[in-house]
Every structure is written in structure tokens, then in C-alpha cells.
Amino acid sequence: IITVDLQHKEIQGFFDIPVENLRASPFIIQHIQETMFAQNINRSDVVIVAEHTSAVRKATGYAERLKVDLAILHGTDDKLADTDEIDGRSSPPPVKEIEMVPGGDILPVLTFSGAFRRPLKLVGDVRGKLAIMIENIIDDVEQPIRAANFLKNDEGARQVHLVGTHSLLTPEAAEKLNESEIDEIVVTNTIPHEIQSMKCPKMKTIDISILLTEAIRRMHNNESLSYLFADVSVED
User: Fold this and answer.
1) How far is CA 47 from the centre of its chain?
2) Model confidence over 12-29: pLDDT tens digits?
3) Which residue(s) pair with 99 in the sheet?
4) What is the dihedral of CA 21, 22, 26, 32, to 10 degrees?
5) With 0-12 CB in 10 A as exposed, 13-18 as middle and 19+ as buried, what is 226?
6) Residue 207 CA to chain centroid, in angstroms?
7) 177 or 88: whose pLDDT is higher?
8) I need a surface site. Which of 38, 96, 138, 170 has the fewest CB within 10 A?
9) DSSP, residue by residue, 42-92
10) Is 9 in contact with 21 (CB distance < 8 Å)?
């Protein structure tokens, strides 16, 4: 089985046949470098942004290979509705009131009026710079749109790009991205998205078919695939 950028590399262990998980990062990095060259942007004016804490490792790999700074977004904004769902990731809610119990003891009473939300904050500096948000799968557009608004309007980013390997966008989601503060959306062609591209002229597609064809050729001829991982970091 040949895959590209599995969301979780551990998935390979669930197969009883060989699995080769290829990486699209060399193609994406080349595109970013070409964008920097075309716009005459210095490395000091580019920042890789981890849109959430789970993307830090991947974003770090890109920042190190591009030799640019890294920034991390965490928390959320006030536009998100409160939810009573407890998923184990939020801090416990504050004590709302106390209650007297027989014997004169004071018993704190917790009232769950929604998950505790930290305000959206940025660790790093994007002011006047090109901020590139790195994702593996682009499907839910609300979070990157809110992040782009924050990076531009609150943190002063000059441009915001959204980069990912797989595009699972609906046509409606593509329209939302096109109307957002995001200046460019870059994805590969692992999944067909012709209609989405028509709905979102900001979207650019990187062709990685040569990666798959070379992998198939090497496997068919019993050749090593190590060459295809030459420019891949352990964070991918």
C-alpha cells in the first residue's frame, strides 16, 4: 500500500502488508521557496504558524528546513459558542458557589456552564510578515479563517497563506475560504478538487503525481524507496 501524509503514522501498524507512507513536504517547501523568490521576500519576513498545538511538530519541521521563524497559535476566540461537552482537554471550570452541609463544613459546588476557554494568543511575531499556516488535512475552514483574521487584524501579518496536503473541502467551504482574509490556499492533488478550485480562485494545486509514479516504479523493480525520503524530516 502506498499512502501520502497519513494523519497518524501509527496507522501503518494496523496493516499486515507493507505500507509506504510518502511525504509531500519537499514539494510544498519548494512551492514556498518559489513564492518567496517571486515576491522578493526575505527569510526574516516569513513565519511558519502552527494553527493549533497538535500542528507544532509538523510546523517545526517546515520552519527548520526553510530556515524561518516559528509561531504558535493557542486558545480560541470569543466567537465560539460555549459548549457543555467535556473532552478532557479543558481546564476544570471555576467554583461558582459554595454550599453549607450538615456539620458546618463548606462544600464547593461546581457548575458546568460550558468549557473553560482561553483567549486566542500567539507565541511569536508575525507583524509585517508572511504567515504560513501548515496543516495536513484542510476540511473544517472555520478555524483557519478565524486564525487568519486574528493574525491579520490583531497581530499585523502582511499576508496569510494556508498550506496543506489533502483538500477535503466542500464547494461551500471553498467559497468561504475565497471570501476570507486568507491570501492563498495551497494543496496537493492527492484528492480531486476541480470544483472547489473553481469556487476559490485563491487555491493553488501542487502536482505530486511524479512522487507516486516513481514510488510505483521502484517497488515494481524491487528498488529502494529511500531516495524518496531524502528531503524528509523526522517531524513529517
Assistant:
1) 14
2) 888 899 899 999 999 999
3) 107
4) -70
5) exposed
6) 20
7) 177
8) 38
9) -GGGEEEEESSGGGHHHHHHHHHHHT-EEEEEESB-TTSPP-----S-SPP
10) yes
Domains of the chain plus CATH, in order, are: 24-76+121-207 (3.40.50.2020), 81-116 (no CATH)
Residue keyed to cell 507512507: 21
For residue 181, what is the DSSP state?
S
Which pLDDT score is estimated for 85? 43
Task: Read off the amino acid at residue 3.
Answer: T
- For residue 153, the number of C-alpha atoms closer than 13 Å in the C-beta half-sphere is 10
Q: What is the mean pLDDT of residues 97-103?
A: 51
Instruction: Give the largest CA-CA distance in the chain.
Output: 81
pLDDT digits (tens, 9 = 90+) for 182-213: 999 999 999 999 999 999 999 999 999 999 99
Instruction: Please give the Cα distance from 222 to 207 (Å, whole number).
Output: 25
C-alpha closest to that of 80 among 123, 115, 122, 121: 115
Q: Give the residue from 34, 43, 42, 31 showing the smallest Cα distance to 67.
A: 43
Q: In the beta sheet, which residues pair with residue 188? A: 206
pLDDT digits (tens, 9 = 90+) for 65-84: 999 999 999 887 655 444 44
Inter-residue contact 208 to 189 (CB < 8 Å): yes
Collect all residues with Cβ–Cβ distance below 8 Å to 30 and sequence separation of at least 6.
none
Can you give the pLDDT at residue 192? Answer: 93
